[in-house]
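We read letters as residues; the integers encode the fold. Take this protein.
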Amino acid sequence: MILRRGFLKRCARCGSGHLFEGWFRLKERCPRCGMRFEREPGAFTGVYLLNFGVALFLLWAVMMVYIAQLALADGGDVNALPIVIAGVAVAVVFPVAFYPYAKTIWIAIHLGAEELSPEERADADKHRSVLADGSTPKTP
């Protein structure tokens, strides 16, 4: 359930949406439950690895299609242009398009591997109750 929420770009804790202020900029907290997304410094390093890994897998799949075409061509010519275009699209466009999904999937993986501590839970609940009052949270 948590991972599914990540694939849908939703909060891993409560399932709420609208987590991004733009395509790349994730809000600091969930607007509904108040969970802080960057739970520790460097917590999003895994996002880059996840994004790179998925893009690399897709690029590998594109290359396997090309190799299969070569094998089935039986000595004939195979047009490489569609494969080159697909490879460039996977290598350049896909990581940009997948980035917000990678971020929410990584948040879900992190939450699934390590539950919120009592302090994090209290902080999220405090933030949620402040938002419910209509006021802004006080910064220390």
Q: What stands out?
A: The longest helix spans residues 81-113. Helices lie at 2-7, 45-72, 81-113, 118-133. The chain has one domain: 2-133. Residues 2-133 form one domain.
